[in-house]
Every structure is written in C-alpha cells, then in structure tokens.
From TrEMBL:
Residue(s) carrying 4-aspartylphosphate: D54
Superkingdom of origin organism: Bacteria
Organism: Actinoplanes philippinensis
PROSITE patterns xrefs: HTH_LUXR_1, HTH_LUXR_2, RESPONSE_REGULATORY
UniProt protein name: DNA-binding response regulator, NarL/FixJ family, contains REC and HTH domains
Length: 218
C-alpha cells in the first residue's frame, strides 16, 4: 500500500482527492491537512509514502512546507507531489527547488494524478508536459537554444541516451519512456541516472533546461 497525506486548504478538493485515492486498491489516505503548518506536523507524525501538496495554503505555503519535508537540508526527505492550479509563475521552479518530486496541475485527469502518486512513490521524478513547457518558457533567454551548432556537452551521451534525454525533456515519466522505447522501467532508471551523471546535472529539471538550451528539443 502507498500511504498518502493530502494537503489542501479547500475542503471540497481534499474530499475529492480522498475519495478518488480511496477507490484505488494500492492507495491509502492516512491523513489530511488544511494549512502548511498542519501539513508539516502531520507528515512528520505519519511519515506517509507520498505527500500530495497544494501551494497556496494559509499559515505556511506549500513551497516552504515542501522545503521542510524534502529540502536539501532534510536528513530523511519525504516524497512530495505538488498538485496545484498555478503553472505559469515561479511556483513551479521554486517547488522543485524546494525538493518536490513532481508537479501536476489540478486539471489533470484522475488517472494521471493516481499514476503520478505511484510514480513518485517509486522514487521517480515527475513533471507534467504542460508544466515542463511553462518551466522552460518562464526562463526565456536562459533556455534559448544555442545558435552555435551542436553542443559538445552532448557528445558524452550514446545514441540511446540521447533518445532518453529527449523524452525526459518532453516531460515523459520513466514509465512513459519505457513504453515509448519498449524497454523496462529499470532500464530507463539506469539511463536517466547515467545521463544526469555524465552531464553533471542535479535533477530532471536541469536536464529539461539543458535540452532546450542546446536545441535538442524546441
């Protein structure tokens, strides 16, 4: 069972999440929180497998709550999936910097949200394609494709790694990459780890930005 904590200040949305998650045989909602401070307290007490976190909440916003649960200074970070209405501002980038394992929008289909929880629980990062586009678009010049020709940094990657890298940059999850390339998810995880190591990248967010900057994807 994947133990889930639902954090959102809107009671109707919380109730909807709890209902949808409760219908899944492998998900168990172990708690709810209506503000950021309550979210942190509940997460530390319950130690869920995945925290579903809204951004705009009273007392403490979801970004700071995420940082306290999954940030770089946390000894035993939790897996946080940010699910929010807002995708066109700095919240996307800041939430991921704060340690969020994934970012989805509230207009996602229930099946996408459920799959997102499962993906994050496996230790994989997740970015909705719409969020990937918003993230890249937000940084304008910093991710503008180079006009100087092929970037030599990509020469360290094999042809197969380039394929995987391109799909990462398009916002696909490990499961979706596995399906597209007809390989196992374990093989994809190995490729992703190898790509990040070879390119000295911290996470998939940096990978997305580099792919767009080098013109690998547009």
């Amino acid at each position: 069972m994947i133990r889930v904590l639902v954090c959102d200040d809107q009671a109707l949305i919380r109730a909807g999440f709890v209902t949808v998650f409760g219908l899944q045989p492998d998900l168990e909602v172990v708690g709810e929180a209506s503000d950021g401070e309550a979210a942190v307290r509940a997460a530390l007490r319950l130690r869920p497998d995945v925290v579903v976190m809204d951004i705009r909440m009273p007392l403490l916003d979801g970004i700071e709550a995420t940082r306290r649960l999954a940030g770089p200074d946390v000894t035993d970070p939790m897996k946080v999936l940010v699910v929010t209405t807002f995708n066109l501002d700095g919240y996307v980038y800041e939430a991921l910097r704060a340690g969020a394992s994934g970012f989805l929008l509230k207009d996602a289909r229930p099946a996408e949200l459920i799959d997102g929880i499962r993906t994050v629980s496996r230790g994989e990062a997740l970015l909705a394609p719409a969020v990937t586009r918003a993230l890249v678009g937000r940084f304008g010049d910093r991710v503008r494709p180079s006009t100087a020709g092929r970037d030599e940094r990509l020469d360290v990657l094999t042809a197969r790694e380039i394929e995987v890298f391109r799909l990462i940059a398009e916002g696909l999850s490990n499961a979706e990459i596995a399906g597209a390339l007809v390989i196992s998810q374990e093989t994809v995880k190995t490729y992703v780890s190898r790509i990040l190591t070879k390119l000295a990248l911290r996470d998939r967010v940096q990978a997305v930005i580099l792919a767009h900057r080098t013109g690998l994807v547009v």
